[in-house]
Amino acid sequence: MGASRLAQTNALFRKNLVIQRRAGKTNCCVILFPLLLFSVIGGLQIAINIELSRGLASGTGSAVDCRCSSGATVDANATGGLDCPPQCPLPRAPKWPPVLQIPRPDRRAVRDGDLFPSAGDLPDASCRAAGARAASFLVTGSNRSFVASMMDNMLPVHNSSVNLSSDISALADYVLVSVLDFSYSFFGFGVSSFLQNTCSPNQTLSFAYQSGNRTETVDVQCTQGLMLWRDSSWLINDELYRGYYQGNNKNKTNEIAAAYDFLSSDHSNFNVFISYNSTKKFDAYEGGITLAFNQEGAWQAPRLVQVPRLINMASNAYLHLRASTLKMSFDFVKEMPKAAQNMRPFDISSLIGQLPYVWTMELLFPVILTNIVYEKQEKLRIMMKMHGLGDLSYWTISYCYFFLLSLLYVMSFTLFGSVLGLRFFRLNDYSLQFVYYSAYMNLQISFAFLMATCFSSVRTATDYEIYSVYLAYHASVTGYFYIIGSGLLGELLFRSYVEDVFLSRSWITLLELFPAFSLYRIIYEFAQSALLGDYMNSSGMKWIDLSDPKNGMRSVLTIMILEWFLFLLLAFYLDHFGSFQNGIRKAALLFHSHVDKNRFQATQQTIQLQEFKASIDNEKTDVIQERETVEHILQESNNSCSVICDNLRKVYRGTDGNAKRVAVRGLSLSIPRGQCFGVLGPNGAGKTTLINMLTGFTKPTSGTAYIEGLDIQFEMNKIYAGIGVCPQHDLLWETLTGREHLMFYGRLKNLRGVSLTQAIEKSLKSVRLFAGGVADKLVGKYSGGMKRRLSVAISLIGDPKVVYMDEPSSGLDPASRKDLWNAVKSAKQDRAIILTTHSMEEAEALCDRIGIIANGSLQCIGNSKELKAKYGGSYVLTVTTVTGEAAEEEMRRLVQSISPAMNRVYSISGTQKFEMPKQEVRISQVFQAMEHAKSRMAVLAWGLADTTLEDVFIRVARESDSASSSPLA
User: What sections of the sequence does the record tag as coiled-coil (predicted)?
Assistant: First the structure.
């Protein structure tokens, strides 16, 4: 009786615990990998912060120079300027006129057939060369006539040059602009010109401003502002995007200054949507402009509050329509007084992007995938299953191990990132990070189980070892390609979709069905929250933020949980059935067998009898008798046979245009308890295929077999509890000892305590692995013969009722082979043993009955004496005389007189070999004739031998080859 599920789980857990303890260094390296990555990131951040601190302390860098445009250091009694860095004190903030930011002249929008194919109202490209550099504003709204009136009043009209040095308050009537570029900014607050609907030739504006203790006069030129109508906000958005400044590629630079959408505004209702560019940045100190850090950590000029001026332009235009005397004056802007501030530490963790974190989190995927594929391709999984390990126990322990490894990895990922000061981890809620990372790790494990089913191909014994190693390597490489490829796709493709506000969120959700994109979305949202929280003094992402549909975190969690269970179900299904078709086919068979089992069996027998009729007609008498015996046994309710094969047939489908190959042809066989049955046959005869079908390695194409009354087609899981298997190849764990192997398989056979210890010692002694501490050495250090003996010991532990041994003595020395034979002879009491071998000596020593298989068919069956008597049928006489034709011819005539049907096999240098049919010869007659011949001729030596089992094997194989002109398809 097999072990319970709890006992199976305990056995597998103990075995895996030993293996993982010995692989402790590898596991620690995997778990501590985030420490290496974050140490590099943290060290880089510390180095940058140290360099910035040195710059602050020395005051030599332009970014930390606390001098304003006047050149005086800002202190308690000095007046600062808007161009002072944010680290410097500003006890008395000055007033400055509001300034509007527009593109620099060589980047302003002009007509361009590629960028603006339908925008014919933009200035001609030749205007740039002529120096006419108008700034374009796009305007739309639902009430075009109203909007047209607004466009006419957006910019003030002045016909001549003006000097406001005596009345600076009138400066509010002018729209001052800055291009945010050092080539065109000459003043502390960056004023380069002023905007009007139309400009007179050489029209200027002069005004004075206070700089420290000095008063300076500024002259700026007029710049034309074009208000251009567009039919929809969609067209405006398209032109803004097309003209957006793209680095140094001037061919793609055609910038719009700003855009207005007046929506449903009319004379009684005023609402407006304004688009503007806030991404302009500086990267140097030049011309008296002092730079500061922006939120992203890049250098830029101080913000000059362009949004209020844009609103003021629209508000004044609206007020002018309501009453021409109404005006909203926007005189000055002023900073808040402030004390000196320490510069915010540079946060590299949120700026390096999502890719390093995504790759780090996915690192366990190839580790998990390789482990699963290795056990499957080395057939260790099926070996455990054949000794009684259930699927539920295997899945439970394997999943728990991978989940524990993933849990430690997540803790390492979060802990080391926090300890090393990375704000990506510190600002976001730890419990939220743990839940999302754990959910993804569970999804990753189930995805690895599902992907492992793609590496489940089985190859023949000849290329088994090479192919297994190849597949394990291939699975590892595939895993790492998945990591790299999915990460790059997330960074280059998925991120742009997430940031595209015009893309439907349904498409984002669809893409997140791919597990790697779900992870990328998680990392992306955590990084954005950390970056925003760092510069806005907020606390990053919290649980309450999940209610915000914009971040999509709730939908990602839902997707991961649903896919987690779905992938597990699919992986379990494919692991159990191999494919969707096999599962459906097996379900149909189970349905038919439960609905009408007798009718189903009768139908199967009819099909089999029709299919194998031609083959049965050609069978030998002993094979026909065996088939009749099987049919008689199947009709009995009680029988003593442990193994019954009923018309077993296996056909492999042809590939690459080749015909299908029949490996086993309608084999019927019965093996009672207490008998060792030997299966002989040349290579490729079907011996291993027969064993594979009986042990569940492969499914029969038709027919079935009964093991202790259980059908291999439907009850294989129950059969596994009562069988032992010694496979053709040694399926062992290199990192376990021989004793640990037997302990694991003994527990699977429901042995425990003292009985388990005694069974292990008995097995080790029976195969000579007990003395000298051999049992406690790692199997990886065993010789081939020692591994073979251990495989035999594993097959016999736990008192199985049926034992399969596929060439058990291959690779053994004579002494070890003798001990193995003794172990098998003592073990066959009360159990059936099926043994395949190429050794005729082994077959005669161990097997009570022998069946010879050739071309997939059973050619003959019986004990050794019966086979030699039936298929040998001749004596072999070897005689050596003096060399000479006369002597040889005389000896030939003598033998012919004894056996007229004799056949001379060969004659070389006086030695002749004759085959004589047994029915024509008496042994006494041969002795008398040879004694008489010695007196008449020079007989140097002679010998008489009976037919050996090897002779029988060769003869049967040759007859089978000559009879099979073509395979049965």
Answer: none
Percentage helix, strand, coil, to 5, in the chain? Answer: 50, 15, 35
Range with lowest mean pLDDT among 187-191, 293-297, 347-351, 672-676: 293-297
Count of beta carbons in the 10 Å neighbourhood of residue 211 = 19
Residue 292 burial (CB count, 10 A) = 20
- Cα(399)–Cα(575) distance, rounded to whole angstroms? 14
- Is the separation of the CB atoms in 432 and 543 below 8 Å? yes
What does the block give as tokens for 364?
């366990």
pLDDT band at 867 (very low <50, low <70, confident <90, very high): confident
pLDDT above 50 for 160: yes
Q: Are residues 724 and 766 in the same domain?
A: yes
Alpha-carbon radius of gyration of the chain: 46
Contacts of 782 by beta carbon, 8 Å cutoff, 6+ apart = 738, 774, 790
3-state SS of 441-460? HHHHHHHHHHHHHHHCCCCC
Same domain for 503 and 635, yes or no, is no
877: β partners? 914, 944
CA dist., res. 969 & res. 963, Å (int): 15
Residue 595 is assigned to a structural domain of this protein: no
| Phi then psi dihedrals of residue 872, to 5 deg | -80, -75
Domain tally, the chain: 4
- Which residue from 715, 675, 712, 672 is spatially nearest to 693, judged by alpha carbons? 712
Asked if residue 792 and residue 917 are part of one domain, the reply reads no
Mean pLDDT of the chain: 79
The domain containing residue 174 runs over which residues? Answer: 95-334
